[in-house]
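Objective 1.3, modelling of assemblies. Example input:
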Amino acid sequence: MIEPPGPGSGVTLGVDIGGTKLFGVALEPSGRVVCEARVPTPQVDQTLVEHPDHRVGVDVADAVADVVGQLSADLGTSRPVPAVVGVGAPGMVDHHGALRFAPNLPGASGADLQRLVGERLEAATVIVENDANCAALGELAFGALRGVGEGVMVTLGTGIGGGVVVDGKVRLGCSGFAGEIGHMIVDPAGPQCPCGRRGCWERYASGGGLGRLAREAAYAGRLPHVVARAGGDPENVHGEDITRAALGGDEGAIGVLDELGWWVALGLANVVAMVDPERIVLGGGLAEAGELLLGPTRRAYTELVEGARARPPIEIMAATLGERAGAIGAALAARSLVEPT
Amino acid sequence: MIEPPGPGSGVTLGVDIGGTKLFGVALEPSGRVVCEARVPTPQVDQTLVEHPDHRVGVDVADAVADVVGQLSADLGTSRPVPAVVGVGAPGMVDHHGALRFAPNLPGASGADLQRLVGERLEAATVIVENDANCAALGELAFGALRGVGEGVMVTLGTGIGGGVVVDGKVRLGCSGFAGEIGHMIVDPAGPQCPCGRRGCWERYASGGGLGRLAREAAYAGRLPHVVARAGGDPENVHGEDITRAALGGDEGAIGVLDELGWWVALGLANVVAMVDPERIVLGGGLAEAGELLLGPTRRAYTELVEGARARPPIEIMAATLGERAGAIGAALAARSLVEPT
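Predicted structure (tokens):
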């Protein structure tokens, strides 16, 4: 398990490896972000889940080192370069910081990311944790999970990640793989998932799921304005187009977010059945739709959770650290190495 | 959360409310069962989930009192009648021992079971907990979960119950409703569940699910011997017939248990995605099929869990306390009232 560290004096660095970019922060113990940096995620080979020589893992480790270099340069000479770096990675990260399985970072499965990053940052101590567990840690320390005993962080992005908080601590499970909630199967006859199975929750309620719902709506003629803006081809409609159009008041796009909310709620109902949290925090890119997604999610949740009327209401709310949650949490995880709790 | 109590001197009573019978034990602190008792579960109104005057809850409380009376009589005059009684109930039990929602005990939803049982046992202190959480507590103290930090107890009976062990403790969640894993939705277009939703895991992998698979196989002509023994009508084939025939070597029945194992594994894969346990223990009536169910469950699990090759093997094994697990755990939960840990 990982706990928020106590107050300390040093700045630590955190880097969150996302589907499109790596995002890094230099974090003060107070939670203040001193500076931030980003680089694009290296091109990955979509046809491979594992890559025999871990080339993708090497490229990703290089990119992490680039972010750390930028952050260190930004911190300048007035501060010593932080010697402690935390990294959040998408997928199954074991207790030694190896990325054992990463369906959303094709080709990186099996890469010993902690070693690879460590080799590139010789003077630094490096820790690698699952990205959503990092986000949970960030929200627990400085965001929407503050003071929560039983809670769940859900990151809705390229895939779906989760961080399960029990008794005020992010729980990693026996191998470090707890919170892989995007790969709950919610329909065994559903669409193929990059993880190799069918009907995983993230096929429906992630960015990819939104894209699929969007294209279905586009082909069905429910998104005339969005399709027109996409050059007339329903195939060119993407998830981001829906969020943007919905925020602009497009009814068809709002309808697609309603559908997405139903699928988000389905998985949340399953998570609640298992862990009975007091609060669920939604982060990741899709959460930027705000109430346009949260509203339908809350409504569908009360239909989809067992015994809704017998339960006290559960708070389903947006993350407060936004895109920074994972990087902040990674920096916190790193600090726990030098300041054991 | 509930923890196994430390050693103490008194006998406590535990009663497990099952779908067909109530089963009670008098338990010594060592784990020795001094005596046991059982009475049939009161007839419940299958058409109602809630009953306005909680008549079913009253009947069930009467039955609990009957079991306690039998156990007290059996204990005789050589021991004082135990003043502490634990009760395991199926469904969502809150922190005050009220049965808030009980899809598998129709008509009892909303009954304040702890108060009702307490009124019938005036001299006793009564605690009511979820039956599967009790079973987890029993297995944790004296059975297959001994020494396990991260584990899950799964009871496969009339429905499916769960008890989630994190850091060596059975976790109840913020309202007492954690571990309701039977009501994870695994196919939103699936069969109607008594809980009011569709496609809950327990529609596929409980006694009811086995019955459905059995009738499908019977109508498809895959169970000629079983159907003959059931009087020639596929509709008369029940889950127990399958288990019995499979244990006797009937190939069609073994095939049905293979199918059941696939559905059991599907839910286990979802549980593992969320909590990453080191061990899963299967109890309840269906677990009596032993290796005939465990074998296909283990095989299907490796197909159905995310990143099987990247994980260390997880132990999927049978409960060791058998039908007594819930009652033993209920007695332990009761002891924790008088001997706080």
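The domain at 12-139+323-338 of chain B is CATH 3.30.420.40 (Nucleotidyltransferase; domain 5).
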